[in-house]
Amino acid sequence: MFRDHFPSLHPGRFVSTSFNRIERLVQTIAFWTATILPVGYLPLLALGPSRFVSLPMLGQIVSINALALLLGHGYRNESEETEDADSE
Hints:
The chain has 88 residues and is an all-alpha fold. It has 5 helices and no strands.
């Protein structure tokens, strides 16, 4: 009876909404990490990896960037989503 009056308090809906918010947060962070990270490692490549960073560390940075690209590939900005909804 209590759940009938307050459907938003249904445990399944709460878990689903929480999961969607966490997924969106991870996508947003991953997208912006993948976008901004190359700004930091491109100068390292230009100066040569042996001066400041070892080659394995540079490989790890590139791997993190690749992972961020995979996790953030579905990111869409909220304003783009509203524009798409308006155009349909």
